[in-house]
């Protein structure tokens, strides 16, 4: 066997990484378009999840916008002691983002793509270190059992 035959190219690796979010989004879009009678448990889960997901997206966007604005400041504005108000504002925005993340992780995942997103976010943000980690991890466990029919 030739060793070079099994080497991944950067393009193949990036292509696989780009295909995964698209593959996860397709079932989510189909599930979102599936009609649910008002008030049914699936619809309540979907509504609660969508609201929590939107709140997390807004909090993340505010933090990203602040980071971009801060990066555009002259170096003397980002140096100590002039940076103290910036650090305080960053802390406030990060706390708001983590609170939105905790709410999202506690919200029941309505389907497998939402469950996959919860796991992804929990790992990326080290959710086990959050103050509400026990509730977030219990919600993940509950989602896993519910979604696999156990």
Q: In words, what does this structure look like?
A:
By secondary structure, the chain is mainly α. 73% of the residues lie in helices and 0% in strands. The chain is built from 6 helices and no strands. It has helices spanning 10-33, 41-71, 75-78, 84-106, 112-124, 133-147. Helix 4 (84-106) packs parallel to helix 6 (133-147). The chain is elongated. Mean pLDDT is 78; it is low at 1-8 and 16-25.
What is the topology?
Blueprint: H1 10-33, H2 41-71, H3 75-78, H4 84-106, H5 112-124, H6 133-147
Describe this structure in a few short sentences.
With 150 residues, the chain is mainly alpha-helical. The chain has helices spanning 10-33, 41-71, 75-78, 84-106, 112-124, 133-147.
Largest sheet: none
What's the overall average pLDDT, rounded?
A: 78
Task: Tell me the overall shape.
Answer: elongated
Give a count of the beta strands, DSSP E runs of length 2 or more. 0
Radius of gyration: 20 Å
